Automatic annotation (TrEMBL):
Domain of life of the organism encoding this protein: Bacteria
InterPro entries linked to this entry: 4Fe4S_Fe-S-bd, 4Fe4S_Fe_S_CS, Fe-S_Ferredoxin
UniProt keyword annotations, A-Z: 4Fe-4S, Iron, Iron-sulfur, Metal-binding
GO molecular function: 4 iron, 4 sulfur cluster binding; metal ion binding
UniProt organism field: Sulfurospirillum diekertiae
Protein name stated in the entry: 4Fe-4S binding protein
Amino acid sequence: MQKEYIFYDNIGLDFPLSEEIELVKVASKGEYLVSNHPEAEAIIYAPEINFYLKQSNDTIAQKINNVTKLYAMRALGFDFAQDMDYSQEVGGKVLIVSEDASHEALKEELREDDFTVMLLSPSMILDVNGHIGDLHVTLKKEDELLELECDQIIWWNAPSFAMKQSGVYDPALLGLEGALKKLRDNKGEYHYKNYINYDPSICQYHERREEICGKCAEVCPTVAILKEDETKHLVFSHIDCHGCGGCISVCPSGALDYTQMPRIAFSHLCAYFKGATALIIPHKMDLGLIDIPLYEGVLPLMIEGEKYLHEAHLMTLLQTSGNPIIFYTDFISKGTGDVIRMINEIFERKYHKKAIYVCEDTADLARIFETMESFPECMYGINEDGLRKREIFSARLAHLVGDEDLGVVKAGEHVHYGDIKIDESKCTLCLSCVGACNVRALTAHPEDNSLRFNASICTNCTYCEVTCPEQECLTVVRDEISLKPSWFSQRIMAKDELFTCLECGMPFATVKAVEKIAAVMTPLFGNDEVKLRTLYCCAACKPKVMFKAHMENEMKGMNV
Ligand code: SF4
Ligand code: SF4
């Protein structure tokens, strides 16, 4: 039976590899899943394998073991991936947008490749819509508005509104050859994937009366996520998505997940880092530039989207490895940046050590290797299957905090955690806030007529605050994580007795709710004793009381 992993040895490997790996001296083709070299064809090319072998200071026994892990990690990502393949037809209509009207040579070159070329000055273009293969350009010619259709655009120094559309390339960024390569590669059929999965049931924008989130659309560098404000629905355009994952790192609820590495796959992947230090490197970074010996126990982890990591990912990796994380990247997303700062502050308080290092050059990496310290005492395992992002982080952080009170840390500008306060004297237990909370942070407990709250699950969305019908009753405490046990468990926020119907004795509302309605209605009902009595009756008995009084009055009238 053919093996899944192929290792093309063009480096003169002087030790054996595990049996699962087909070791070849000549680049072979076959139905392999993971290879260490682009010439040894496989579904997945994993450059980190050769990088690790070249740079690692591990012993030979460790290397044999770790190379197998690097293959297995790639296979795991493949097995769990939830992406689908899509394609879009792309014709040959190209628009060149440039101040320079003399692009004759370029036009000729493109025509030779069977492109139809149009040339426009940027000052004429008002807007661009659509996507690669179906772009709509709105133009102003004298006083007339015109619409032009094309498949792709080359635009020198393109404005950001144009760069948000797929199929627009800027030679000032890519170089002219780079931009032309894109045009040629895309022509015919453009292949793309869905990089994000979306769960509207916990989304804080979806069908809310007020807009209290929309962070994913704000940080998306393209038009892949749009807010439809009329219906409060998010609209996803997978063809426009770069797969950077920035939206996932800022999504407070965990409604977004990365299809290439779903949360549960990441949790399994972390198991390979037990006792090791993860050196996270986004794919877009050039491994060839990281020419530095890796300290013993350092294992590279290549990630697809450079921006998707959030607090649950990072805590899982820290608590599984018992070692710090090093992020080698030239770009940190808003969400990941916030959680790195937050987690570092938490680890400093608990262990007086830094948890996550960020660097983008080898000099920094060398300094980190010198100073980093492990913290095996933080290791903790949970089964993350079926758990949401907040639930994973809450369970992990609660274990780290233990019985201590480590004070309060600030959440971030892009990552929100907090608390609520309820004035129990004003709360009627109407439970509007429970209905408003779609992440189960606020819950109703009929067994003791209480309203309870778990701060660690709350997304700080504030929808409960805007929904509460009472004045100054429920207040959201913004962006604070209280590092003490009570923050992680359900607290009783308000509680009441049930009021029993004066007629039938059935409990039908809380005492405070009945008293509140009675206080409002009593002056309106004046001396009408029947109406006043109905205030203390259940919905079924109210009409009976009214009807009985009516009949008695009728009878009296007949007697007169
Ligand atoms: S992954 Fe990046 S490009 Fe895609 S929707 Fe999210 S933020 Fe936008
Ligand atoms: S960031 Fe998450 S919760 Fe907020 S609107 Fe986007 S998907 Fe919904």
